[in-house]
Structure formats: structure tokens, C-alpha cells
Design goal:
Endonuclease III, domain 1; mainly alpha; 3 strands; single chain; globular
């Protein structure tokens, strides 16, 4: 079947305009690509770049990360946000070592069986690391295909089978070429066919776009509000984790109580960190997960203690085909929030690509 004109035009545009990102370099390998995919979930490229370099330098293989503690993974995650991703990456590395001899699997089914890897991430690694033909569909791709093919202003909040089918129908038959086209669709959706301010004048497929031909109709209903961060439990969790990351030993509850003025919210945030497996009890103090395994207590007990209100009220607040592909995802959008997951640990496709 001949390649679609839309795929040809977008891939040609990508060849000339793709950003030079390190995980797109020829020969990078499947593990660094997997790391980048996890880090780019709900996090802009500018913030991911230094963290990705640090991780790949320290843990260039799954075996290197699996040999270190979960606490070090959380510590190295820094302030990227959504720190459970660090735990999932560590669990993923351990599984890759135990089941796949330390090599990231290339089969889609094996990728989907890895901890924290959902439909989007599995397809992205299979395509971008191994040059396979899969519809790699995130928020940017869904929006682009919805506009260009169906004439709709947006594709909705979650990836559906129809989105995968519509995208796959546009991909070239040759696997490596299809993988590059998938990367091109993402890049165009992130840089040109954006949600709020599409640059139709710079788009290579304006003449083929059904949405543009229809006069660029607006999406029905209210505009989605950007999630706030200040004052939320997420902020308090981040403040608590920052203290634990920088500590050289167990941290007392009194010390943690100093990071936020609202005792109820502070206790709730600490309890959620324990419940998520990010923090553990070491005697009467707290440590990052796996830091002092010999002293850790059961999660239920730790959660209960974390929830108890303190008396004190503080005053302060590899593949060769990858050389031909060299694609990845784009994230020119400002921080906001992008795969339907096969398990709770995996992010949704909507969460995956908001920052590509």
C-alpha cells in the first residue's frame, strides 16, 4: 500500500525540524529510551534533560539500577514530580534483570508485563528502540489525527481503540519508517498542532487538514482548567520528600513537622507517601523506601503512625534499527498535565504527552 500523503509530509517536516534530544540519538538503546519515556510523563523536556543525563550516567543499564536501592532511585528523581515513577523504574529494572537477562525486551507483550509500563510506553519503546510498527498514540498524536483526519478540534481525554486504529491507518508499511512517522506525529502535535494555540501557518499538512478546512471549529464545552500546585497535597508531599532525600539518616517526625503549617494536611501527605511505598518507618523516624530495610515496619503500621496528629504545632511552612529511527517525543508545551494503562502504576496516554 502506498504511503499516505499526510504521513509523507509530516515525516519530511520532522526530518528537517525535529529537536536534537539525547534519547533520539542513534544507538542510544532501549533502556535509556525507556527511562526517557517514564520521565517525560507529565514533565516538560527542559526539566527531564538534566535528570535523564544523571540517571543514564549513573545507571546505564537495568542491572546497574537493580543493584542499587529504591531509596537511591527516589533520591536521584529529585524534583521531577510524581516520584512513584522512580519506584516503578527500579521495579522495572529488577524485573528486566530477573526475567530478561538484563535486556529490555522487544516483544510488546513482554514490555506490557513490566511494572509500571502501560500501553503507550510499551508501544513507544517497541517502536522507538526496536523499530517496530505500532501506533504510538499520546495526547499530541490523538489531537493531530482528530483534527487532520476527522475534522474534530480535539480527541477527548483518553485513548480509545478507535484512536489506535485511526493512527495505524496512517503509518507506512515498513516498520522503521512507521516508527519514525510516529515520532513525527508527536513532534508536530507538540510544536505545531498544539491544544491552545495551533500554528496552522507553519503546518506542513494544512492543505490536507479537515479541521482547518472546516474553519477550525472550537471544542464544545468549557476549557479545561490547569491544575494548581501551590497548597495541594502534592506540594506537601514534595516538601516532605525533599527533607528525606537530603538526609543522611532517619528523620524524626518533629523534623518533618516543620515543613508545613497545616498539621492535618501534613499528616495526610506523609501517610500517603508511606502508603505509596515511597517512605518507610525506621523505629520512630522515617526514611526513603529501602534505605534501612532491616528496621522497616509493615506498611499498615507505618501508615497509621504517619496519620496520627502530632502534639507539636510548628510555625514554619540497541537496536540497529534505532539508528534509522532516532525519534522520541516532543514537549514544547508549558507544564500542564497525557495511554490507557494496563495497571494502576502506569500513566494514561493523556498524561503521557502533555509536555512532549
Amino acid at each position: 500500500m502506498p504511503e499516505s500523503p499526510l504521513a509523507t509530509a509530516v515525516t519530511r517536516w520532522y526530518d528537517e525540524n525535529a529537536r536534537d534530544l539525547p534519547w533520539r540519538a542513534p544507538g542510544v538503546g532501549a533502556w535509556p529510551i525507556l527511562v526517557s519515556e517514564v520521565m517525560l510523563q507529565q514533565t516538560p523536556v527542559a526539566r527531564v534533560l538534566p535528570a535523564w543525563h544523571a540517571w543514564v550516567d549513573r545507571w546505564p543499564t537495568p542491572a546497574a539500577l537493580a543493584g542499587d536501592s529504591p531509596a537511591e532511585a527516589i533520591r536521584m528523581w529529585g524534583r521531577l514530580g510524581y516520584p512513584r515513577r522512580a519506584l516503578r523504574l527500579h521495579e522495572c529494572a529488577v524485573t528486566i534483570v530477573e526475567r530478561h537477562g538484563g535486556v529490555v525486551p522487544s516483544e510488546l507483550s513482554a514490555l506490557l508485563a513490566l511494572p509500571g509500563v502501560g500501553e503507550y510506553t510499551a508501544r513507544a519503546v517497541a517502536a522507538f528502540a526496536y523499530g517496530q510498527r505500532h501506533p504510538v498514540v499520546d495526547t499530541n498524536v490523538r489531537r493531530f489525527v482528530a483534527r487532520a483526519v476527522a475534522g474534530n478540534p480535539d480527541a477527548g481525554p483518553a485513548t480509545r481503540p478507535a484512536d489506535l486504529a485511526a493512527t495505524e491507518a496512517l503509518l507506512p508499511d515498513e516498520p522503521a519508517r512507521a516508527a519514525r512517522t510516529s515520532a513525527a506525529f508527536m513532534e508536530l502535535g507538540a510544536l505545531i498542532c498544539t491544544a491552545r494555540a495551533p500554528r496552522c501557518g507553519a503546518c506542513p499538512v494544512t492543505s490536507m487538514c479537515a479541521w482547518y478546512a472546516a474553519g477550525r471549529p472550537a471544542a464544545p464545552g468549557p476549557t479545561r482548567r490547569v491544575q494548581r500546585y501551590a497548597g495541594t497535597d502534592r506540594q506537601v508531599r514534595g516538601l516532605l520528600l525533599a527533607v528525606l532525600r537530603e538526609a543522611t539518616g532517619p528523620v524524626s517526625r518533629d523534623r518533618l513537622d516543620l515543613v508545613w503549617h497545616d498539621a492535618k494536611q501534613r499528616s495526610r501527605a506523609l501517610a500517603s507517601l508511606v502508603a505509596d511505598g515511597l517512605v518507610e518507618l525506621a523505629g520512630d523516624a522515617y526514611v526513603l523506601a529501602g534505605e534501612h530495610s532491616s528496621t522497616q515496619q509493615p506498611t499498615q503500621q507505618a501508615t497509621q503512625q504517619a496519620t496520627e496528629q502530632p502534639v507539636q504545632q510548628p510555625t514554619g511552612q540497541q537496536a540497529t534499527t534505532q539508528q534509522a529511527i532516532s525519534p522520541q517525543r516532543s514537549a514544547a508545551q508549558p507544564p500542564a498535565s497525557r495511554q490507557p494503562a494496563t495497571r494502576p502504576a502506569a500513566r494514561t496516554a493523556g498524561a503521557q504527552a502533555a509536555h512532549r
